[in-house]
Sequence to fold (1144 residues):
Amino acid sequence: MKWLDGLTVKSSRHLAQSTSRRSLLTKLGMFAVGTAASIPLLPVARASGTGGPGYPGVAPQTSGLPGDPGDPTQCEYWRYCAIDGFLCSCCGGTQNSCPPGTEMSPLTWIGTCLNPADGKNYIISYNDCCGKTSCGRCLCNRNERDTPTYRVQTNNDTNWCLGTESTVYTCSTGVVLGVALDQGAP
Amino acid sequence: MKWLDGLTVKSSRHLAQSTSRRSLLTKLGMFAVGTAASIPLLPVARASGTGGPGYPGVAPQTSGLPGDPGDPTQCEYWRYCAIDGFLCSCCGGTQNSCPPGTEMSPLTWIGTCLNPADGKNYIISYNDCCGKTSCGRCLCNRNERDTPTYRVQTNNDTNWCLGTESTVYTCSTGVVLGVALDQGAP
Amino acid sequence: MKNKAFGCIYSLCIGAVALAQTVNAELAAENIPNVERLSAPYSENLLYVHDGDFESIVAGKVVLLDVAASSHNYKGALDAAQFPSFIASKRKDELYVAETFYSRGTRGERTDVLTIYDKYSLKPVAEIPLPGGKRGMTVTHRYTMQLIDDDKYLLLFNFTPAASIMLIDLQSREILNEVFIPGCSLAYPTGERGFSSLCGNGSMFSAQFDKKGRVTHQEKLQPFFSVAKDPLFDKPVYVGANAYFPSYKGQLYPVDLSGKTPQPKTPWSLLSAEEETANWRPGGWQIATVDDEGLIYVLMHKDGLDGSHKGGGSEVWVYEPSTQKRLKKITLRNWGVSVEVTGGKTQYLVVTNADMQLDVYKANSGEWLKMIGDVAAMPFSLHAIR
Amino acid sequence: MKNKAFGCIYSLCIGAVALAQTVNAELAAENIPNVERLSAPYSENLLYVHDGDFESIVAGKVVLLDVAASSHNYKGALDAAQFPSFIASKRKDELYVAETFYSRGTRGERTDVLTIYDKYSLKPVAEIPLPGGKRGMTVTHRYTMQLIDDDKYLLLFNFTPAASIMLIDLQSREILNEVFIPGCSLAYPTGERGFSSLCGNGSMFSAQFDKKGRVTHQEKLQPFFSVAKDPLFDKPVYVGANAYFPSYKGQLYPVDLSGKTPQPKTPWSLLSAEEETANWRPGGWQIATVDDEGLIYVLMHKDGLDGSHKGGGSEVWVYEPSTQKRLKKITLRNWGVSVEVTGGKTQYLVVTNADMQLDVYKANSGEWLKMIGDVAAMPFSLHAIR
Fold:
């Protein structure tokens, strides 16, 4: 749901852009780089690495791993190609760990994302972190290879806080499981 | 808390002004009419009747009562001189009634507001409506004669959903109790 | 009240009220308490706006909105917690919310219930406990909960991740049965008293119940679409007993759900050759809807590609399914995300825009009429009365 | 798991992981589950950001924020529901949240508890039930809950509207006593083991407890300020055992709270004659704070008048209480609403701005350093470690 990215909801209510780069239009413009002007919000533009400077007031990070380029606090980060939710990297966790006090869901949906560093497709497991109220920071939605609920293992609309003590959703990670067998959907 | 008016919270996150008159700056500018430029958001400006067109996408109302001027969906409406919360007029209620399914609190805080129609000060009872989650529409805060919690009967920071089945706050009304004895604080 | 300081509120109020009666006040003292009640019948232009608020999923709501009224559009709201499901009865004065609570808000003991609201007071009047902690939670989706057989029975989707459909008798308020649907999802009303589900292999599962809730028929169809090449959206629109499923790439798949066995019909394209070249595709959240005449409205975007299917669109295209003809294109004033058409004499196309505000258009002309603001944080699902 | 379709998730994953080890993948498979834990000691620049989110009061939170870190500022969060109170122990590894739940989210049976969190896991480790449904609820306010006597006891404000202060023993985790404070409000730590409250007639109530929680002393002072003419804000700052209460019109009222009887001292003005003429006044939500040197920071606005006291301000003025001198004026980059100064080697002035974002300044120079974004919907109350 590309209209989600950067748009944090209530934000759609009386919206300020006074002091910072918080205008939705600005954000949209930023993401429009490299994609057709007719789809101002195209999420895939982010995956292409042409994304902008990320969420205002969120300090950049790296995963620290060689061969893992990009900033895990940005929606454009390569692992997030099918993510839907708040980035744990902005919430007290990292790209592959949950914030303190939450529980990582053992059940997840799966994405297949291209790592620009080695040109390989990786299987990414979007383990949700559960048990505290929505983080509310760095809302990001991308839908590469996302399928509807009837192929649920690649569906990101499902609340994947399952098998956890609480089903309350806090934020989402993108954990590397390994290189994909082929380029196709799992 | 003047920074509350018009600003609906999450709104402070990535904020749009793209398609409508929803810029906070615009709103602030609007309310600045008639007041010193150094306080861009001065709530009292609203009471002065110089307010702007209200909350975007909220249709105007009248109370229908002779001698009761103004629009109860606007923060500037005279009865709201010490209100703090979501206007029930925007939430399924009116200036003096609660939305369906909520319960009106029997305990309230009190304001003393000048009715511009007759030049008289009225005692206004800000009965909260309780039992459903925050309405989220038409957040308005004005603090004329508001006192701290130690003089609680004129304090609007208190959750006045008291004596109700649930203390969960939904929205606020401004009920006319009668003309004030004098201009002073109660 | 033990607190002397508070007595003064009342003495003050009483004093003030008494005074108001003596000093020739313009405005009389007003009644307390004073709570609104919705009047019957509902406006035909009423829309249930289901808030999919990500920021506070445990505290969501469904707003009742009269999109045609010149004022007081917002009629009230129901609470709906933790990826809830909502549906309104058309036959009874009841609204249904399936929801989940924790004893400590976000943690503690889990309780799932079906809450039944009175349509006019908007108060909960009954609750059916949902045992097993299995209620399916997804971003607000109409087909997680459906009514069948003149609203006498309710279908509810479970997901643990074992998927099943529960059948609830709304008269006795009992759970009658639970049918497991491995590899399938959601409940599309089917036949006299049954449902179908789409399945991960491109097929459909279908079941029928008798009045006691016993399964009288169930079957799994042969695959009729390719999930790998062109998945169907799991959000069809119904014209009578025919469900129309748009596909990611702009085909429309009709499935006749009038009998016990679903009958997939030949799909047809929503696109001209040029439109296909320009990669026009359906996209958004509630991507399609239907009006009283059975015309189908689909939210479309250009330059579609893998991953653009939830991105919303700039235009709404209107089709007559009987002739497979497109009747018109409505260019939206603002980028759209979800669409619905209200019923009644004048039908309104309501579009959740990218700013999460609701744009109201005349359905027949496509003329933009107004924006209704701040109705919900994330008005993802819009339910007209139809 | 009964659902065959789901098995494939795992077989897929296992297959993929195995593969990753054979095809010379750049990135290795990562550990699941993986949950962060805060390390001891906390950063001295940590700030507890209490979200007063009006939109979803039943689903609030307290965010732990390292304002000095160059990345990973947001360290985690605690839930805090329904006009909650929050305080962190400085002596023990515990954080406290007083909160209220309903069995059906917004309705049903009420449960009030004091939840005790472990500082490093951010998990609730204990809960003290608060009987009577009397917990005081107000827009987030530090003085609804306080720690005394080396954090051995906790004071909690009740309001029904009968006002009282509860004394809780944090070692035995028992409620020891409840003192009614008719016409008064909140709890300001006082003396060896007690509290004071401001009262509606401009006076102060004060009480002392012994170690068993029995009241050993209580008294009500004579009025020392005029609520009608110039109310004191109910949000003082402490320098040692002296509490400083700013007034609406810019006077500062010191009250020595070191002994069992509060000692109000002569108030002094925060304003020059010209500033008074220009109606400079304190205003905002958390209007004042103090740094490690005991300097007092007050958020100020010009052209103040009746009703402007919660409006925030454009400048922060810094005072040395011992000399009653103003040391400097900091002109804010953005209109401010709440202020706090973090402790430690480099102290930071953090200001909640009108867009509800946090501006970070160097406290000593007033230099703006950065904005930390989207930490909370409404970061009204900021608690430094001090």
